[in-house]
Structure formats: structure tokens, C-alpha cells
Amino acid sequence: MSRQDYQKQPLNGAYYGPSIPPPPNTYNRPGRRGLRGGCCLFDCLCDCGCCLLSCVFKIIFTIVILIGIAALVFWLVVRPHAIKFQTTEASVSQFNLSGSASDTLLYDLTLNFTVRNPNSHIGVYYDVIDLRAYYDDQRFAATELTPFYQGKKNTTDLGLVALQGQTVITASSGLSSDYSTQKTDGVFDITVKMYLTVRFKIGWVKIGKFKPKIQCDLKVPLSSSGQSFQSTGCKYDL
Questions:
Q1: Are 110 and 91 in contact (CB under 8 A)?
Q2: Residue 142: partners with Cβ closer than 8 Å, 6 or more residues away
Q3: Which residues, in sequence order, are CB contacts of 128 under 8 Å at separation 6+?
Q4: Which phi and psi (to 5°) does residue 18 adopt?
Q5: What ranges in 86-210 are assigned the alpha helix state H?
Q6: 44 alpha carbon, distance to own chain's centre
Q7: Residue 106 near residue 166, CB atoms below 8 Å
Q8: If residue 7 lies in a helix (H) or strand (E), which one and from where to where?
């Protein structure tokens, strides 16, 4: 057979082409991920390839979630309720204005309050109780009450508070007519505010100082009028 005939003779078996070299050996170091993806919070401490802003956001988001869960658990366990203040007694034996541009107010005011703590797991330390009395939005008397501790589910009577003396009140438009009407009716519009500094006790833990303000809008009868005072709830002055 000639060389030319040999070259034209077809192959007896199938032809699969040239041999394919084996794939290169790839090796991933332990602890490194070869797959592409985001990094978790702890990978932020290492070189995970995520940008710094993304890591900071994830840390902040996690902290917010943890605080939210802690607050929810605290509320479910403690179930806090607002402290309630009530004015149970109020009367004036003297409440006289004299003068013109600046009026001198002579007063003799008696008050009493109760404080109700409805909480089953919270005690309250009343470190400061600064009581102030106002007429026509002007303060005419002030005193400090004795600090005390109030236990759980307890109602405390603060006792009689006597305010006596005289002070100068700047006459405003309508003050004279309002005072004359109230004196005729035998009932005066007096506002009492309490500026508090309190701490809460939960178990053995004391939670640091809060300064709520309490406002009591009162219709105070003149004792000689024969009218009785109606117990009045107070509100938080926000």
C-alpha cells in the first residue's frame, strides 16, 4: 500500500480528539470561603471583604434588636404602671387680695395628698418633693415635703400641708374681676405643682434619678363658705 493510500484510509475506531489535560488543583484554606456572598456580623472583625459601613450598620441593628428584646422582656415581667397622685383635701381659711397695680395676697391654705403605687414589682424612693402653689399663673407659696420610700402596691398619705403667709402678685388683666367672682362663689382656682426627684427599686436594683412634674388643678373652697372640697386627681405635667 502506498503512502498516499495509507493516509486516505479511514480510521477503524472513533476519534475523540487530543487528550484533555486535568483541571488545575484548587485549594481553599480552612476558614476562608471560596463562594461569593455577604459576611456575617462576626466576620466584620476579620477580613471578610464587606465594606466598613455595612459592618457598622449590622452592629447597630443587632444592638437595637437586643435592646428591644430586653425592653419587651422587662415589660412582660414587671408590667409597670404610672404612679397616681390624688388631692384629697384642700381649703383656704384666708385668701385676700389688696392693692392696685401690685396686689398683696394674704393666704392660709391647707392641702393633703395621697400617692398610689399600683406596681407589684417596683418600689419608689421620693428623694425630693418640691411643692408650689399658684394663683393666676403666679407662684405665691412653696414648701418641701419629707422624702420617703413607698413599697409595692401601696397608698401613702402625705399628711396635711399648711401654707400660710403673704406675697405680692402682679395684677394682670382680669385678675381683679376673676378674684371678685371666685370670692363671691366661695371657691378659688388654685394650681398646685410638685417637682419630684424619684428612684425606682426593682428587686435589689435601684434605677437612677427621674424628675417628673405633677400638676393639680384645684377648686379650693373658702372654709367659711360651708362648701366641701371634691377629691381631685392630678396629672403629669409634660
A1: yes
A2: 130, 131, 132, 133
A3: 144, 147, 195, 196, 197
A4: -70, 155
A5: 175-185
A6: 34
A7: yes
A8: helix 3-8
Indicate the pTM of the whole model: 0.68
- Whole-number pLDDT of residue 123: 94
Question: How confident is the model over 7-55, as pLDDT tens digits?
Answer: 555 555 555 556 666 666 555 555 544 444 445 555 555 555 557 777 8
Site of grid cell 393666704: 107
* CA–CA gap between residue 192 and residue 219 (Å, rounded): 11
- The Cα 141–Cα 186 span in angstroms is 20
Closest CA to 109 of 168, 171, 178, 165: 165
- Closest by CA to 220, choosing from 173, 177, 161, is 161
* Three-state secondary structure call for residue 15: coil
Neighbours of 48 (CB within 10 A): 17
- Report yes or no: 201 and 121 within 8 Å, Cβ to Cβ: no
Look at residues 170, 159, 157, 187 and name the one whose alpha carbon lies nearest to residue 92. Answer: 187
Grid cell 487528550 — which residue? 19
- Tell how far CA 61 is from the center of its chain: 22
Nearest to 221 by CA among 231, 236, 210: 231
Alpha carbons 200 and 191: distance in angstroms, whole number:
27
pLDDT at 61 over 60: yes
The pLDDT tens digits of the residues spanning 87-112 come to 999 999 999 988 665 688 999 999 99
Measured distance CA(75)–CA(77) in Å, rounded: 5
